[in-house]
Amino acid sequence: MRGAVLYAPHDVRFEERPDPTIIEPTDALIRVTSTCVCGSDLWPYRGIEPVTKPTPMGHEYVGIVEEVGREVRTIKPGQFVVGSFFASDNTCPICQAGYQSRCLHKQPIGALGSQAQWLRVPLADGTLVATSDIPSDDLIPSLLSASDVLGTGWFGAVAADVEPGKTVVVIGDGAVGLLAVLASQQLGAERIIAMSRHPQRQQLAREFGATDIITERGDEGVEKIKELTDGIGAHSVIEAVGTQESMMQAIRSTRPGGYVGYVGVSHDVKLDGQELFFAEIHLHGGPAPVRRFLPDLIDRIWKRQIQPGKVFDLELPLEQVAEGYRAMDERRAIKTLLRP
Ligand SMILES: [Zn+2]
After folding, report:
1. pLDDT single digits (tens) 244-265
2. Which domains, ranges and CATH numbers included, belong to the chain?
3. How many CB atoms are closer than 10 A to CB 277?
4. Residue 295 in contact with residue 135, Cβ under 8 Å?
5. Which of 105, 173, 196, 240 gives a 20 to 30 Å CA spacing to 179?
6. What is the pTM for the complete model shown?
């Protein structure tokens, strides 16, 4: 088969890779019908995470089940499935508590590389969620977004305790931040303040439910949020970037007793214990347990209540994966959908 392989910063190639096969009896083999480039793929692409050897890329996927191992019970060949970026058994105590991204038997899909024509999915019964039927084409981008960015934005909102009537701040205008806006709107937030200085992303944030846009960053951004929240900060703040500046902005924008849900992959963030102590806020985040939310998210997409697939503003055949990365790296595209 063919798929994307990262050789060095800014050097992603579409090339021949070994055909995956069933290895464990709990595996499924799927024909990938859509995949995409994630903001987190840009960390190694930009060389911020080291690339030491040619690395298959991608961890977001939807597809058709082709074959299953002999111990797979619920997933069947022919089904259309959505899975998350960690394979999980969905039965261990951590999964049962809703933290499938930290399953005792978790396996990262990124190591298998979903930007490819075929994908072996471990722990198929626990990982994959089948739709009731083969979806119509217009639903595919939204279903694909559920595989990571929608589920991650949703977790950010849940971790930030978004509830009806609450004021929410979303830091980060990438796909996850934009979908955290959508999640907050769905969860009943009264006011949603999106931080963005990019006109096209501001527009999409408003479509997804943002009521206010702030263009300032850092301490100036915090000041603006205080101005909009009676001087005390927001109840819920979602951090969807992962830098020192964005994390401190999130903490300082939260009122005492409030919540920060942080879902931007953290890079060199250091927190000061004394500042945290006196901030008196809840901090919760990490790799999103997307699997927890998948059945609900698929249902909302299937009923056309939400259109998270709008975050895809570039669609390319998989063979043009390199251009897909370039467009996101240069912020010409919010998110690239790839069709194998
Ligand atoms: Zn588990």
Report:
1. 999 999 999 999 999 999 999 9
2. 2-148+289-339 (3.90.180.10), 152-285 (3.40.50.720)
3. 8
4. no
5. 105
6. 0.96
